[in-house]
């Protein structure tokens, strides 16, 4: 290294051709080429053609795999199908096909590259000494020359088929990585369907929003009831007819210091108590309510002595019914269920990142990363003694998003 001239004028560098600059670059970098042998020194060697054809096959396979992946991703029926529904078989193939096609695209591309390096590029063993410090002008110029030299020795420039296929396979490989991210892009303002137990598709609606349309909504508990076996004329079969997964909650159902998770239950879907009928089929709607993203609410009955100390938020003074308070169960940090209620301290705890909310202080956060109070659902009791929503939440439920004012 020491006897390599390091300082070159611009004119000297301009006078060197690419090979000379490349050779200088290896010297300056302390690289010694210990061994170098062209794979096919004679142009038109049949062995070279065979090697090239082999690589082309792998690249074509990779391109086909990439195209197949995109085709499956964009056009295969992916919507959820339940047992017995039409199209279930096709739907079950969706994920395996994504896996198989991306595997083919990525593996075939990898094999093609390895084959290219092993069968086309010159065999070479180089040794480089390590050195410190930044690169100077001569290093940068010689590095460019070396890269040019690598491009030349790779012979990719004259192998247009392989070059094109390699580019195509590379782009498709990139798309197989990027395209699935498209599924996470959603327009949060778009109303996707009529208002139902899941809201209307926007972030600020839920099953409780039905109250805005005058629907009477009961606070209902999940009984975990499942389909029952029935004997009929056509044989035995499971049926949910006459069953209620959700049942209405009465004020006296909850002991002081207790907490219960409740979901919205529209009046027309009630199938318990005096409204029970063996022929009513409401089970599916109950499940929709339970599965509604923002529907879960914690109904808390404070101990009476504690309730005397409760501080109401302005505008929410009449949201509670006596000692009963209903707070959204969806954490205002990033949306975990705030499942834990500690009756001694009246604190609600989110197990995800340990945010704590004060049930005596309108669900205000008192510890952890959550910055907003849990939205409070206005509740009361109807003439039959069942707990019902007095209206919708007055603010969006769950984590913050850009339109939120509160
Ligand atoms: S989601 Fe509740 S603390 Fe993070």
UniProtKB/TrEMBL annotation:
Official protein name in the record: Cytochrome bc1 complex Rieske iron-sulfur subunit
Job of this protein: Iron-sulfur subunit of the cytochrome bc1 complex, an essential component of the respiratory electron transport chain required for ATP synthesis. The bc1 complex catalyzes the oxidation of menaquinol and the reduction of cytochrome c in the respiratory chain. The bc1 complex operates through a Q-cycle mechanism that couples electron transfer to generation of the proton gradient that drives ATP synthesis.
What family does the Swiss-Prot or TrEMBL record give for this protein? Belongs to the Rieske iron-sulfur protein family.
The species is: Corynebacterium flavescens
Q: Can you tell me where the transmembrane regions are? A: 55-76, 96-117, 164-183
Q: What is its main location?
A: membrane
Molecular function as annotated in GO: 2 iron, 2 sulfur cluster binding; metal ion binding; monooxygenase activity; oxidoreductase activity, acting on paired donors, with incorporation or reduction of molecular oxygen
Instruction: Name the source's superkingdom.
Output: Bacteria
Q: Does the keyword Transmembrane apply?
A: yes
GO CC annotations?
plasma membrane
